[in-house]
Amino acid sequence: MQGMKEKIMADHNLSTWARISGFIYFIVIATGIFSLMYVPSEITVKGDAAATIANIRSHETMYRSGIAALLINQIAFFLLPLALYVLLAPTNRLVAQIMVLAALIGIPLGLASAAERIFLIELLTSKISVSPQAVLDLVAVSRARANEALMIATTFWGLWLLPFGYLVFRSGCLPRVLGIFLMAGCVGYLVNLFGLIMVPNFSELTIASIVRVPATIGEIGIGLWLLLIGIRTPKIAPG
Asked: Per-residue confidence at 181, pLDDT binned at 50, 70, 90?
């Protein structure tokens, strides 16, 4: 009887951590879409630095909100693998530790990108004194450094999905198909990264959109599943 009570309590705790993980994942996804997709799409004018600068100045509140969202995103992304570790470590503790490490390594790069964006808005609002002739060059350099920091961060945004997907697949408490999508998402992130480095205009090619699909399905799918459904009674698989 005591053993049954302990099992019920353990299952309840895991279910709670599943919902916590799902909620944090929702924050990561929502802030990521806003800061990394929506704001740049509204601000950036491709091939026209002057128009982009004008957009940043005329949409300063949006741009600052994007920076704030990116910082919240990185804070949530710090907490997410820690919550998932509690949930998935019973499946394989070593792989769960690798998952956490791979996720956390990318955070300094995300924060570096946010710092560059803060520098840029301070520059454009004259809180940093430079000659008008230097503003255009400094903005171009700052934007490039911010984007490149995020591009390198995608190395680890991809790598952490491999152990994460493996644990989801082996856990027995989450849909295996989502684990497959997450592991495929790791490959997609890396293909996209090296494509951007090696192939001119890679982002405009059809394959650039295709390789991002598995990670999108896997991450949104697992986030919603954890938040709305939780977990089944876990069946711990051997490492």
From this structure: very high
